[in-house]
Amino acid sequence: MEDCDIERIPATSEESKSITSISQENVHRICSGQVILSLAVAVKELVENSIDAGATSVEIKLVDHGLDYIEVSDNGSGVEEHNLDGMTAKYHTSKLREFVDLQSVATFGFRGEALSSLCALAKMSITTRHKNSDVAVRIEMDHEGKIISRHPCARTVGTTVTLSNIFEKLPVRRRAFVKNVKKEFNSMCQILQAYCLVCTGVRIKCTNQTPKGNKTVVVQSHGSLDVLSNISAIFGTRQSNDILEIKSPLSDSRGDMKTVDVLMGELQDDLGDANSLDEDDVKQILGSKLEGYISSCSHGCGRSSKDRQYFYVNFRPCDPKNISKVVNEYYHRYNAHQFPFVYLNIITNRESVDVNLTPDKRVLNLNNEKVLLALIKKALIATFDSIPSTYKVQNTTITSILTKQEAVAESELGQSQSENLEASSQRFYEVLSQWKSTGDTEGAKPLTKLVKRKCPDEIESRKLKMQKIQEYLNREQSQQVLNETTSCKSESEDEGTKEQDMKYSPKSLTEQHDTLEIATFESLTSHVPTKESEKITAAKDASPCEFEGDTNCQKTVELDESDSEQDFPKFTCNELKTSISEIETMLQDEIKIKRDKQQKSKLQRLRFKSEINPNQNKTAEAELQKEINKSHFVHMEILGQFNLGFIITKLDADLFIVDQHATDEKYNFEILQQTTTLQHQPLTIPQTLELTAVNEMVLIDHLPVFEKNGFKFEINDKAPPTRKIRLLGKPFSKNWEFGKEDIDELIFMLQDAPEDSMCRPSRIRAMFASRACRKSVMIGQALKKSTMEMLVKHMGEIEQPWNCPHGRPTMRHLINYAMLSNDDIDDCSVEQSD
């Protein structure tokens, strides 16, 4: 420690400062940034205030997607004049008086910090009129929430809140908002749709005005009194026709205790013995109810993404991950290829729900969540169990082509024809039953002849059907006889074969199968070359003069006792003062230092620790992404091809194995993704797309992406929202068909995709993956060195080279041969011996 020259750096050279409180202005700005996180949260808070005020009409107006201006107006109760000062003050609210009230709060808001936080992040003005006031009043606030101006104005009963230049006091967030304004706008519309669905009797309308002056309705509900009508208003009648009402397990059994007991037993079986139901669980079950709708599990009724899934607890929109996971898992049991539309409202005791977890109140804590999950499972099973066994029947109007004469003749048949038909059908089933049990139809009574009809086409049809039935019976009888004959023949052949096998000897077997050549040797040593070695004895070191003579001299000089008597040089010896313990300590320190250096060197070389194992694919891929960048592929040295399917490469001291088919497939796939423009097939009749106003805006903003995917649209800017776009053509490619589902999926992908990114629907990706697979280098194909170099070089030119489109890994680390030094081998042998 005395030789250590590391200087100790002091923690700080300044004097410790006294702890003081932060100013109220800074506290206000810091806390407000935690409450209002985005445009969606800002609009949500204002809409919730309007609904809590009893409004039946809420209108949201935005200018340039909210960058310049946000206005929310309602026809609620308004604010009395003596409450104006506290309306924008921090932690001032009329919804709570004590902390205990939080357990029974029934309103959306309750903390009293939304308007105060909005004042800190934007310029705010409020116009309000209470029903007891004769005129309205308009007030303007500063960033601390204090009123700086007040004057009367005209307005009906209700409140209007106006925000401008939101996030202007937070420069970083403002720049991020400007950059991602359309994503923020789409998220806001998604949240507004959730309130439009659950708030029955409330008309909600949201419009956006572009800088050019064009005004568009993006979300609108009609104030219907039921959820199903709201679903039709927001997403169209097609969506409402493809959904089922979720059957709540307790909806029809609240007064029937016997049914409740049966349900309790089923829930206990689902939960298992480890989670026994207690009294609180029973109370929660009896006090809970499920209301909602979900997509039918019939194919085509679901969606390609989770873009329309809305969950509520006591009518409050939320994001319950576990509930969402259960709903999607159980839906996939019946429809594995699609995601459901979900509207699920869980009505339960308010005392068992904690809503005060996050600023936006969308994360909830549910007591006894396992019981609610079990209830949801039972509800989904009850909803879907009958669907797979039902089929859609399409009624078709058939125009009669019978003439009057044929109709009269048909009526003359009367009751006698019906009786003959019934008797004939009965005899037909008797014949079938006799054939099924005995395989013979002889002796059966002939089928009763049908009454001759006047219509020749119908008679010919009857003859054709009877002829097919007789051919089927004859074919089945012949097949049965043939099978029995073949079975008997096979058994006899097998027995004969067994007898012959018992008589065969190895000699006769060799004579019959000339291609089997077995070579035998009398002894192994007669074919393995051996070399005798002479005995090696110790030899005396040769002097330089001995090499001046014959160089072929191989004479061995044996040691003799006289050799040990020669004189040795004298050495001076001095006594050193030490001890055995000190020597042992020094040796141990040196050994430890050496081992630490070796271990450090090994760790530096051992960058890849995952094995070539399917269970470690994610770990291996993460290591490759961390240690290998695209420039490394150019410097990889090709060592050769292994098993006509893999390329062995070397980078420094690391060896890698590359799947020649997977890597070429991934390169071809990404090239197809980037460069291919699908051809579209024009539609004879253009289709009107039932898109929401938000999805229409996303589609219009990304028209080049849709056109590259083979979709052709007609845009009518003068048409009302949700009716502006018509599909004129859709992509086609041999056996692949595409349609509206792919459009919905592409819209969902583009909502979260970076700007100028090229997105492809999953079915188009699957088609490209199939094409890339067929045109790539195959396993079993011998490759030249130049071809192998080209394949490895291509890996550095693509975006994600670690696995093919079908999930196969493209490369894996084999070994670091620098670790196979003699020291490492010795260490390994020592560790094994220990």
Strand proportion:
15-25%
CATH architecture designation of the domain at 24-211: 2-Layer Sandwich
Through-space gap between termini: 33 Å
The profile of the biggest β sheet is: 8 strands, mixed
Helix content: 40-55%
- CATH topology category name of the domain at 24-211: Heat Shock Protein 90
CATH superfamily heading of the domain at 24-211: Histidine kinase-like ATPase, C-terminal domain
Low-confidence stretches: 1-6, 389-416, 443-454, 481-557, 559-565, 822-834
> What's the Cα radius of gyration?
42 Å
Please tell me what the overall shape is.
Answer: globular
CATH class of the domain at 24-211: Alpha Beta
* Order of adjacent strands in the largest pleated sheet: 5-4-3-6-2-1-7-8
Number of helical segments with 4 or more residues: 24
Beta strand count: 23
What does this protein look like?
It is a single chain. By secondary structure, the protein is α+β, with helices and mostly antiparallel strands. The strands form 5 sheets. Strands 5-4-3-6-2-1-7-8 form an 8-stranded mixed sheet. A 5-stranded mixed sheet has the order 9-10-13-11-12, sandwiched between helices. It has a 4-stranded antiparallel sheet with strand order 16-17-18-23. Helix 2 (39-52) runs parallel beside helix 6 and helix 18 (660-675) packs across helix 23 (785-795).
